[in-house]
Amino acid sequence: MKSLKILLPAILLLIVSSSCNKLDDFNLSGTIFIEDPYYPGLPIYSEWGYNTFGAYIDRKPFVSTSDDLPVKVIVNSDTLNIIFRGRMGSENVDLKFSIKGFSPQTYYDLTELDNTTFNLKEPGRAVTLKTGNVTTVLNLIEGELIIKKVQRLYVDEELSRTIMSGYFNLKTFLDDEPIAISQGRYDLGIGYENFYNL
Amino acid sequence: MVFPFTAVRPQSDDNKPSRRQSLSFEAGFLYPQGTIKESLSIRQNLSYYYVNQHSDGSISSSTSGMLLGARYEYGLPGIRSGISTGLRFVGINTEINGYASANSDFFYLRYSMEGNETKFARVKSLTECNYLLSIPLEIRVYPLRYRNISLFAMAGLEYSVICFKKAADITFREEIMNPQKDVVLENISGPVNRNFSAFYSSIGVKFGKEDKLNYTIELMLPSFLLTENNFYFIDIDYLEGFRLSVQLPLKSN
Fold it and tell me: Given CB atoms, is A23 within the 8 Å cutoff of chain B?
């Protein structure tokens, strides 16, 4: 019993001291590309500026990658060009939306487009698909570009960039075959590095 | 060889727990398990984007707790049990950190989203502390005893009656944001319950002779909070932990 009286406080001390080294953790992994569980291969729709986009071209996912800026916004005269650059399988693909009549001076002015839907069949709109080195101006059956949310992003109270989020869908002909670009969604940060007013 | 605790001697009056009263002093650690609240708008980073389509950043949250208390126990030898109650000080702390790269130990927290403006702060850590005084009510059953070692199982309820401190704090990466601290904290931390109640259970071992100084070691089984929204930044699913006690006999009948 004497040894027990010595042993127990020693065990107590040992447990208390070891528990101080590392208390319980539970971790959360932060990701930027969060896959949509309902549309595998595509990112979820978000409004965080995750710099992702994705769509199915027929059944193949066309998604942004890390190799290139996922978007460039180029204002040329009175036309706003939004170029999504990504990959479909191993092929580099650019999808360009051209909208006449909008010419924001800076990326902050993109907020004018907040909650706007463009019918891509209307005059002054064009969509171009570049696959590899082949560029095709699409003859649309139907299509729309929805700019659901445009936000000016302040980081530590300083204006940093603009976040543009929304959806796109279209049907067109490619090599005389009708195809659909469906479930398109994007969440993109636009700043000095990817906005050009030419 | 049979496990020694199964070789209990036939019970006789001398090895039944006697009807006695005791005072226990306890100390322990709690390991709450849960997740960061979904309402807390955390974004890992703005610019990093990798081929494998995951950022290399992560958010980690650690929550830990400790308890100190004193309990009066009244033994019920007829059913090899004891009922106890007392006072317990409980402290639970949470810290949320972010990691983006070797020199970017921060995360982005959205604290405002109005109209076409959204505001992020670079945050090094979010912390929360809760210091409470609670009243436990516990029942222990001692089904097995071998020499000076008893095994027991315990179930208890606990309700906090005094909240000494319940506070959230934020450490910004840039000092320029410090004047915004109150605004940011107000935006991200909604109202929470100041007190909590919990149901818990444990299994343990008691060492020592009857009517002498005893020691106990208890492993807290997953226990559940009966109240909701007890914390600013985390949702607790359950609590685990361990507890050590010293039991002083008061008097025997």
Answer: yes
